[in-house]
Amino acid sequence: MSDLHLDFDYTPGMSNNCGKPLCCRSDSGEPKNQDEISGLWGDYNCDTPVKTLMSMFKHIREEIKPDMILWGGDSIAHNVDTLSLKENV
């Protein structure tokens, strides 16, 4: 697995088209129309919600039952305008 881009601030119902490097967050503002509403499980235009990642891990653990998982990294969210070392750690 790689490129999970987990977003701890993903907020369903926020705009997926906010003009920032990363939307669907608590500071993304209200959507302008129905097509811009971020969904409960995620949005193609945004990074991965915690809820979705945890559901995926549960499915992998209970249904696929792998012997090993390789995590290739690149898991940091794309909020480059507000990213900090403390948040990443």
Written account of the structure:
With 89 residues, the chain is mainly alpha-helical. The chain has one domain (1-89). The chain contains 2 helices and 2 strands. It has helices spanning 50-64, 85-88, and strands spanning 6-7, 48-49. It has a two-stranded parallel sheet. The longest helix has 15 residues, at 50-64. The protein is globular. The mean pLDDT is 94.
Q: Classify the helix fraction into a percent range.
A: 10-25%
Q: Roughly what fraction of the amino acids lie in strands?
A: under 5%
Q: What is the H/E string?
A: EEHH
**Main β-sheet: number of strands, strand sense, barrel status?**
2 strands, parallel
Distance between the termini: 20 Å
Which regions contain 5 or more consecutive residues with pLDDT less than 50? none
Helical element count?
Answer: 2
Radius of gyration, taken over Cα atoms and rounded to an integer in Å: 14 Å
Q: Output the structural class.
A: mainly alpha
Number of domains: 1
Q: What is the residue-mean pLDDT, rounded to a whole number? A: 94
Describe the global form: globular
Total beta strands: 2
Query: Biggest sheet: strands side by side, in what order?
Result: 1-2
Quaternary state of this entry equals single chain
